[in-house]
Amino acid sequence: MHPMLNTAVKAARRAAAVINRASFDLDRVGVTEKQHNDFVTDVDTAAEQAIIEVLQKAYPTHAFLGEESGTTGNVNDESEFVWIIDPLDGTTNFMHGFPQYAVSIALQQRGVITLGVVYDPVRNDLFTAEKGAGSYLNDKRIRVRKLDRIAGALLGTGYKNGSPKALDEYLKMYGLMAERCHGVRRAGSAALDLAYVASGRLDGFYEKNLQPWDIAAGSLLVTEAGGIAGEFNGESNYMNTGHIVAASPRVFGQMVGLLAEFA
């Protein structure tokens, strides 16, 4: 395992320790509503700080893009190493004791995601990927599930609370996809959904209006597991647009064919 990936795993486990301690007494967790139905807890903040402390100690010249702390260093310098961090993807789930959330850490070098870690502290599932070296779950190589037709697929999706128009669009997409596959699940953590695509637990995932920290690590897991990640129109600019479709190759093509009208 690459030394930087080892360090990212160490940081993810440090954050998970913060999260696990807090999960035993959720009534004491401080919660702030950033905007309607978009929450941050003091656990998010503490977990992100734990991650940054580990990474900054090892790599003091690197830049950071964190969901809670924002940017540190020159994240726009393409020569920079930039760590992209979501300390608790699935905060609403965590607040309610719903066991579907994860720590997500990715490394971007010269505009390319080169390392990714998604760690599920509930199941102790560690998903890792290194560009050109494959994706792994608990040190075992994983691949997307081989599936020829979307009709046999189990898909994941998500929805960021927004305008009535955005909700209407989401419901139209949901209905369209649900009619054509085995089922659609909205579990509440994009990072874990993407990790599940990489490991074959899901056959595809789609969502709009995500942030880089939601998808950076998970998208690398998918591509290194033999899948494809792209926008709703099939283009590859999802890190900037926040609109992502991820699946095994044949299912990806069929999903894009159905979702292109929402691009």
TrEMBL record:
State the reactions this protein catalyses.
Answer: a myo-inositol phosphate + H2O = myo-inositol + phosphate
Recorded hits in CDD domains, A to Z, give: IMPase
What span is annotated as the signal peptide, if there is one? none
Report the EC code(s) recorded for this entry.
Answer: 3.1.3.25
Cross-referenced SUPFAM superfamilies: Carbohydrate phosphatase
Pfam families cross-referenced by the UniProt entry: Inositol_P
Q: Where does Mg(2+) bind?
A: 67, 86, 88-89, 214
GO BP term, pick one = phosphatidylinositol phosphate biosynthetic process
Key words, A-Z: Hydrolase, Magnesium, Metal-binding
Q: Which cofactor does it need?
A: Mg(2+)
Entry superkingdom: Bacteria
**Broadest EC class assigned to this enzyme:** hydrolase
UniProt KW Cytoplasm keyword: no
| Similarity field | Belongs to the inositol monophosphatase superfamily.
Complexes and interactors: Homodimer. The rRNA transcription and antitermination complex (rrnTAC) consists of RNA polymerase (RNAP), NusA, NusB, NusE (rpsJ), NusG, SubB, ribosomal protein S4, DNA and precursor rRNA; S4 is more flexible than other subunits.
What is the protein's name according to its record? Inositol-1-monophosphatase
